[in-house]
Amino acid sequence: MKTLLLISRGANDLGSNRTESDQIVNGLRRRGIPVRYILKEDEAHGFFKEENQFEFCLAMEEFLTEHLQ
């Protein structure tokens, strides 16, 4: 993988393993691939709390603005 990546997840998501997500992010970063990792300790699958939704949307906007020029 050579492209930049935005990953978001809730720490309490029972459908996927947080350790595996952390390993993927860390492995990509070690290879110099830019990764924006948004991890919410108080969410599961999807962001349902308004403040987390807002933060995710803001991060996505910043990410796209920076990388889609």
Notes on the protein architecture:
The protein is of the alpha+beta class and 69 residues long. It has one domain. It has 2 helices and 2 strands. The chain has helices at 18-30, 50-67; strands at residues 5-10, 35-40. It has a two-stranded parallel sheet with strand order 1-2. It is flat. The model has no long low-confidence stretch (mean pLDDT 93).
Which keywords apply here?
alpha+beta; two-stranded parallel ribbon; 45% helix; 69 residues
User: What global shape is seen?
Assistant: flat
Domain count, please report it. 1
Widest sheet: strand order? 1-2
Mean residue pLDDT: 93
Helix-strand string = EHEH
Write the layout of secondary structure elements.
Elements: E1 5-10, H1 18-30, E2 35-40, H2 50-67
Parallel strand pairs: 1-2
In short:
The chain has 69 residues and is of the alpha+beta class.
